[in-house]
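As a warm-up, study this chain.
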Amino acid sequence: MSTSFYRNKNLTRPRKKQSLRQHRERIHRARLVALGMPADQVALLTGKEARQLLHHPKKVQQAHAKG
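Now compare it with the structure written out below.
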């Protein structure tokens, strides 16, 4: 192979894929449900809102604590 192949890292850079993003979002939603948030409420969240809530999992857990 030529040396430019090794020097130009942009040609070998992996690209973000939609299926992997959907997989990550499913995992995020499952984590929110595990923290005690109702599943129907989690289903209404956008991906950005779900990620924002996961920045502070203890707050989510306290907000949806059963008791």
